Amino acid sequence: MIIAGEASGDLHGGNLARALKRLRPGLDIFGMGGEMMREAGVRTLQDISALAVVGIWEVLTHLKDIKAAFKLMEEAIINERPDALVLIDYPDFNLRMAAKARKAGVKVVYYVSPQVWAWRRGRIKHIAKVVDKMLVVFPFEEALYREAGVKCSFVGHPLLDEDAETRPKDELTRGLGLEPQRPVVGLLPGSRRKELHFHLPVMLEALSLIKEKMPEIQAVIPVAPTLSLDDFKNYLSGHEDVRLIQHDFSGVMSVMDAGIVASGTATLQTALRQKPMVIIYRLSGLTYWLGRMLISVPFIGMPNLVAGKETVPELIQRDASPERISSLILKMFYDKAYYDGIVRDLGNVRRKLGGPGASERAALEVLKEAGI
Fold first, then answer.
1. Among positive and negative, which fits the CA dihedral 319, 324, 223, 28?
2. Domain 169-352 in CATH: superfamily?
3. pLDDT tens, the chain, 372 aa long
4. Measured between alpha carbons, how far is residue 58 from residues 125, 267, 342 in Å?
């Protein structure tokens, strides 16, 4: 059984399911996820489209849906008795689910750790009580868990398993409805509707300022699988030339020269392709204030956290203004030394995350814990 709660977890869950089925053909995998997990052959008893929420207020307004999903997953554990339960990120939901599974005598493997090194470190004590094996994707996480008595293995980052794009760039660019000779900026506002609300308007305002200096710029948005084209229609009035692309994230990553990227998994996906970016994050004032009280790391962007320094600029809350975003993007296009320096630093980030094969290594650990 696999439980993921948002787009990034669905992606990792899908890759894990494929690896499990390669190693054990005929294996029955079920749980909670989205399109990626379904495509990998997972019986999704609960779709995640209504559950990928961010911020205190949005969680409260979706509490009924979240509670119903939790009850359904708890019943599935009891009724289907999986050999192992794999929990992917989504910690507030999944740590409670781990306790239910442990009580039912089901082995619990946690894949993609809650960011205890960033905030609420005290959760490690609870994790030690309810998780049989932690599979971490960042090398610095392993020692943290082992010191707390949690059985843990570093398996590498599953994003390194994504296939390299082999289509010629000119062909890709034309296929996305863009012109190969013109520069491309990617807008990645996030995978949740509330993230669109906070990020897309400021990204589009920044794009307008960029166009004043670079009228030849083209913009493209890869649509997350948890979102639909309809989710964007109220934002794009006056920006009809912005291309919305579904089901070809790899293609968008390959053709864009730089990006404006909301903090999250997409920043690491962009970094692994060595594409310079500006990382932004905006949220409600209350959530931001509470977050500042709890977070204890110097950066919000995964590439910067992995590097231990600011490899790409990041702007939070009011600092993520159209003026500052556009200024940094223009600098990337006009200052070759600045652009090339970011590309080099992102190459170091990729090397720090190890090599490909994370999904298969994780699958082997899951099968070992399940005893199958």
1. negative
2. Glycogen Phosphorylase B; (3.40.50.2000)
3. 999 998 889 999 999 999 999 999 999 999 999 999 999 999 999 999 867 555 544 555 668 889 999 999 999 999 999 999 999 999 989 999 999 999 999 999 999 998 766 556 678 889 999 999 999 998 888 988 998 899 999 999 999 988 777 888 999 999 999 999 999 999 999 988 889 999 999 999 999 999 999 999 999 999 998 899 999 999 999 999 999 999 999 999 999 999 999 998 899 999 999 999 999 998 765 555 555 545 556 788 899 988 989 999 999 989 999 999 999 999 999 999 999 999 999 999 998 887 899 999 999 999 999 999
4. 28, 23, 35
Q: Are 173 and 179 in contact (CB under 8 A)?
A: yes
Domain residue ranges of the chain, discontinuous segments joined by +: 2-156+357-370, 169-352
Q: Do 138 and 116 meet the contact criterion of CB atoms below 8 Å apart?
A: no
Question: Got the DSSP string for 188-238?
Answer: E--SSHHHHHHHHHHHHHHHHHHHHH-TT-EEEEEEPTT--GGGGTTT-TT
Question: For residue 35, what are its two tokens?
Answer: 């399109």
Strands 184-188 and 258-262: parallel
Angle (CA) 136-31-261 rounded to 5° is 55
With 0.85 as the threshold, say if the pTM is over it.
Answer: no
- Which residues, 6 or more positions from 251, have their beta carbon under 8 angstroms from its beta carbon? 165, 167, 172, 175, 176, 245
Read off the tokens for 49. 């489209």
**Rounded distance, CA 43 to CA 70, Å?**
16
Helix axes 336-352, 265-272, angle to 10 degrees: 110
What's the CA gap between 233 and 231, in Å, rounded?
Answer: 6
Rg (CA), the chain: 20
Rounded CA-CA distance 88/51 in Å is 14
The CATH fold assigned to 2-156+357-370 is Rossmann fold (3.40.50)
Any idea which residue has 């379904």 for tokens?
A: 38
Element holding 171 (H helix, E strand) = helix 169-175
